[in-house]
Amino acid sequence: MNADCLFCKIAAKQIPSKIIYEDPDVFAFEDISPQAPTHILLCPRKHFVSLDDATPEDQAVIGKLHLVAAHLARERNLLAGYRTVFNNGAGAGQSVSHLHLHLLGGRQFRWPPG
Ligand code: AMP
Ligand code: ZN
Known about the structure:
Elements: H1 6-11, E1 19-22, E2 26-30, E3 38-44, H2 59-75, E4 82-85, E5 101-105
Antiparallel strand pairs: 1-2, 2-3, 3-5, 4-5
The protein binds adenosine monophosphate and zinc ion (ZN).
């Protein structure tokens, strides 16, 4: 855990959030400022900033984030489709320095993203 990290504090339940999934490797919670009817953030418990900081030992958890996202999308009945996004670095819009996969669904998405 990184004592200065918002998402580490959410994992440790030091900051309130709507956690909807937890296991020994990952946790997921509702985004506080949803950009779609479903907007969930999925994080590894291990603190690292972005894909740019990931090491080979993080390979399994990065894959697992996607499988848990698919599980949650099925649970939420996102039959029309959903989007999963990592923002890596400020230039891509990353604002919290703990890797997180956005799961967005429940509306039509455009491509390319903004
Ligand atoms: P990003 O801009 O890709 O780093 O995404 C960070 C996300 O964290 C944004 O969608 C924010 O709305 C969300 N966020 C920030 N603070 C909180 C919080 N306390 N609880 C839940 N989501 C948060
Ligand atoms: Zn963290």
